[in-house]
Amino acid sequence: MRDWLPRIVIGTILATGLGAASQAAQEADPVAAHRAAARAAAGEEHLALLETVCRVPQPIQTGATNVPPPSRAVPAREEWYAEPAQVFDNLYFVGTQDHGAWAVTTSEGIIVIDALYDYAVEGAVVDGLRKLGLDPEEITHVIISHGHGDHHGGAKYLQDRFGAQIVMGAPDWDLVERSTRDPIPRRDRVATEGMEIRLGETTVTLYLTPGHTAGTVSTMIDVRDQGRSHLTASWGGTSLFATTSVESIQAYIDSAVRYQQLIETRGADVLIANHTSFDRTPDKLAALADRRPGDPHPYVIGADSVRRYVKVAEECARAELARRLAE
Fold it and tell me: C-alpha angle with apex 275: 258 to 318, nearest 5 degrees?
């Protein structure tokens, strides 16, 4: 028998044993295993999301009511203001330093994705559109990713001033209407699974992805770069809170799995987010400003990277679920 054959046999046995040991280790510590999977999916592109969603929630203090104060201090403009920018032929950033808001332009009006805090909506969205040479009077729809004040707070302003229709998931309409510190818009349209908002040549598709909140909505938008078509994906809700139930975490996981399938099926190759650190908007806007003809578009990262972004969220949620179940 050749002398290499025993080595192959021994190597196979060792590899099998190590694989079994690794599997046993994962089964023994599923939290660590899911966190490792999240880190692998993050690569170097999605570290901000990893650090946010995989953060271990702090326990709720005894006697805490978890009820927000009735009012919010308005920060100085320089603490939140960000310059607006054109990102694609028909998509514009009109957010703040921390929060993403997006304007989709069409031949029949403007669709805004998220409305920021109420104190920022005029300066960021309305004045931002004007600074970009666009008319805020053309806003027809405002899609709210989820019912937290940093995303819906400015919705009533846009509704009252421009007659924009507000679109939100049904459970989050209920959540917003219970708000004690944010302006409450009139209930216009309830988002449904696969709802399409079509204006002119552009379609924004809405998907119900409960978990972050019960009514979280994720979107996909047809965009163009110098005439070339792309598809954006925006995961509507991100962090997991200490108050989130096991059922909500499981819903978050299920939503993430399904949204990844949609990303693959539809070939979404652009990531945009409702928090600027998650899609690295400051860096990408700077790269866009320096972009030369023939340079790649910084927001076009490919369907695999977009899918891995949501995979990070999924695996972090699986880690949190395993941690809760082990308590």
Answer: 40
pTM of the predicted structure, to 2 decimals: 0.89
DSSP class per residue in 211-259: SSSTT-EEEEEEEEETTEEEEEEE-S-----TT--HHHHHHHHHHHHHH
**Helices marked H in 132-237 — which ranges?**
149-152, 155-162, 170-177
Paired residues of 95 in beta bridges? none
State pLDDT tens for residues 121-174. 999 999 999 999 999 999 999 999 999 999 999 999 999 999 999 999 999 999
Measured in whole angstroms, the distance separating CA 139 from the mean position of its chain's CA atoms is 22
Residue 261 CB coordination number (10 Å): 12
Residue tagged 């009252």 (tokens)? 160
Cβ contacts of residue 47 below 8 Å, gap of 6+?
none
Helix (H) or strand (E) holding 303: helix 303-326
CB 237 within 8 A of CB 209: yes
Handedness of CA 142, 146, 150, 153 (dihedral sign): positive
Which CATH fold topology does 30-56+75-326 show?
Metallo-beta-lactamase; Chain A (3.60.15)
- Tokens at residue 288, please? 């866009």
268-315: pLDDT as tens digits: 999 999 999 999 999 999 999 999 999 999 999 999 999 999 999 999
Given a contact cutoff of 8 angstroms between Cβ atoms, the answer to whether 181 and 68 are in contact is yes
Give the closest residue to 117 by CA, choosing from 159, 80, 91.
80
Backbone angles phi, psi at 112, to 5 degrees: -105, 135
CB-based burial of residue 84 (10 Å sphere; 0-12 exposed, 13-18 middle, 19+ buried)?
A: buried
